Amino acid sequence: MPGVARAQSGPPLVFTDAARLPLVGRAFPERPSGWHRIAPGSYPDLPAAVKERLTNPAGLALSFTTNSPIIAARWCTADAKQNPNMAPIAQRGLDLYIRRGGTWLWAGVGRPGDGTVCNDETLVLNMDDSEKECLLYLPLYKELRSLEIGVTARSSLKGAANPFRKRVALYGSSIVQGASASRPGMAYPARLSRHLGVDIINLGVSGSARMEPAAARLVADVDADAYMLDCVPNTSPELIAQRAGNLIRTVRSRRPHAPIIIVMSIIRGLTHFNRVWAENMVRQNAAMLAEIKKLTDVERLTVIPADELLGHDGEATVDGTHPSDLGFDRMLRVIEPIVASALKQNGIL
Amino acid sequence: MPGVARAQSGPPLVFTDAARLPLVGRAFPERPSGWHRIAPGSYPDLPAAVKERLTNPAGLALSFTTNSPIIAARWCTADAKQNPNMAPIAQRGLDLYIRRGGTWLWAGVGRPGDGTVCNDETLVLNMDDSEKECLLYLPLYKELRSLEIGVTARSSLKGAANPFRKRVALYGSSIVQGASASRPGMAYPARLSRHLGVDIINLGVSGSARMEPAAARLVADVDADAYMLDCVPNTSPELIAQRAGNLIRTVRSRRPHAPIIIVMSIIRGLTHFNRVWAENMVRQNAAMLAEIKKLTDVERLTVIPADELLGHDGEATVDGTHPSDLGFDRMLRVIEPIVASALKQNGIL
């Protein structure tokens, strides 16, 4: 049976530098060089690890139209190192959606080779030649160095306006950055974006999101209609007590009318048998709730409780911490209606 | 925050060769040398690629008890090559469950290093010292060369009887072998096994399951209470017409009273825009149904239709073919009640 063949085996393709195509999910109007989420050098006070994570284009997606029956891509990442808890397609691959009947429908992935920094892959082929609106999600967990989109010689390829008008900034940990979705478009911010029809600015920083003052300024500087904060998982109770109030007040003071939605930490599967983790998690969420209770003067503040986020069978994560697509699906069943309601109440949806 | 630390950083551990511990999910009473699913050299007529797949210990799990507060593992695989559509934990890692209150609850994973053939990892730590029943699932997609289980020096480690009494043989493609579960215990045969409390013999052979006469003999030779056949995805309509009747009749003739459950092919996401795939899939499932209709004399034959297996939003796979944990979860919502009913009707459950 035919699979998705390499670009080389089909008709000749013409490649276009994707730097010319519009990007969805951008934090700021100025487009950084390269494919970083924020310009290198901005926010010098951020921890080095956070700056590194912000070089990964999680949540960024190219917006274009084409009538090509084939869509291919050539791309290079900073390296080809592999995390144990993610598929290469998610970590350093590409994920294509095409709009059909008003819905974004999955169309194809760019599969990175084993250990290959540069890849040349067909994302989808054998399509009809109607004009199609495309969203191409970029790698979740690896700096992208170059990207070209290939279409057949007689086809069009045009940048398209951002299909999403309203903007939500979402600050968080590895879970927000997308670990461990199966592919970039399955990260929970990306799914929430397509479901609600809003642009979600992914400010997920794996291993961190510890609410440093510089991170609070970054989040508040993003001009958005609403703010989501999912930053409990990597922050100790002590740091939560020191920093959570400042983060929320910084956003509120800069964005007086925007809803702020706090996502409590998922209950990690590590808590099933590891007694240290079981105690940690209770303390983390309790510390966050204690800080939120102090903010009686902060309006339009919504809290999404932890209890139902991952269900109760312990099967929602790959490693006890990072939700699989199943875990993200369960999270969205809780999060999505609450976010939709907050956006509607504030005239954003 | 502490993660799961390496074995080296905790108390001294004593390692036991896992070849001495009982295995769940075995096809035949004779245990092959190594960690193969069937003995090398048996079924010489099988295609070479199928024989290779049967060296991967998909669906095999160690059964043991321990009161150690730490469980660690040292293991080596044939190589460390990585597929683009699977997490390393699934492809060549380990996945531990512990029974609590009658339910198998996830406890920890063994994470393979990037490119490392041999690994030494703590699966879980900080547990209480009660006696625990453990199931340790082996790598889905890589030949295992050695495996040792580590517990603290003062703890017990004993092989345990197979916790499952009834047996179901499940023959199929990569989807049965477990692509693209996030970890070995999330492959759909493994989840079905835990949910129903039956031993499922995983005869998933990635890229194949084309119902060759030798494969039909292998399936029928497995002494099981029921047989599941999920072997449409890689088989052309022409081969289905040639071979499906023989496969089903071979099983029926060898196992006159066992229920036989046919799983139709999931509708691949590749069909969304790829017109060749859209046509292929319709023809494959139609060919299988046509063969089944001819078998009017075969009793206790159940067919699970394709339509609802993956839902209808196109989000159930990593690459248009292989279900993520979300896709497997959706499949099980359809498959599990039908299998449970067939087993109950035949006095097996």
Give an overview of the whole structure.
Two copies of one chain form a homodimer. By secondary structure, the first copy, chain A, is an alpha/beta fold. Chain A folds into two domains: 7-25 and 60-159, Galactose-binding domain-like (Jelly Rolls, Sandwich), CATH 2.60.120; 167-345, SGNH hydrolase (Rossmann fold). In chain A, 26% of the residues lie in helices and 24% in strands. Chain A contains eight helices and 15 strands. Chain A has helices at residues 48-53, 88-92, 174-177, 188-196, 213-221, 237-254, 275-294, 325-345; strands spanning 13-17, 23-24, 61-66, 71-77, 94-100, 103-110, 118-124, 132-137, 144-152, 157-159, 167-172, 199-204, 226-230, 260-263, 301-304. In chain A, the strands form three sheets. In chain A, strands 2, 3, 5, 6, 8 and 10 form a six-stranded antiparallel β-sheet that branches. In chain A, α5 runs parallel beside α6 and α6 runs parallel beside α7. Chain A is globular. The model of chain A is unreliable at 1-7 (pLDDT under 50).
Give a brief rundown of this model.
Two copies of one chain form a homodimer. Chain A has 349 residues and is an alpha/beta fold. Chain A has helices at 48-53, 88-92, 174-177, 188-196, 213-221, 237-254, 275-294, 325-345, and strands at residues 13-17, 23-24, 61-66, 71-77, 94-100, 103-110, 118-124, 132-137, 144-152, 157-159, 167-172, 199-204, 226-230, 260-263, 301-304.
Largest interface, chains and sizes: A-B, 60 and 60 residues
Report the mean per-residue pLDDT of chain A as an integer.
Answer: 96
In the CATH hierarchy, the architecture of the largest domain in chain A is 3-Layer(aba) Sandwich
Cα distance spanning the termini of chain A: 45 Å
CATH class category of the largest domain in chain A: Alpha Beta
State the oligomer: homodimer
Number of domains of chain A: 2
Radius of gyration of chain A: 20 Å
Query: What proportion of the residues of chain A form beta strands (DSSP E)?
Result: 15-25%
Instruction: Please tell me what the overall shape of chain A is.
Output: globular
The low-confidence parts of chain A are 1-7
Counting DSSP E segments of at least 2 residues, the number of strands of chain A comes to 15
Major sheet size, sense and barrel closure of chain A? 6 strands, antiparallel
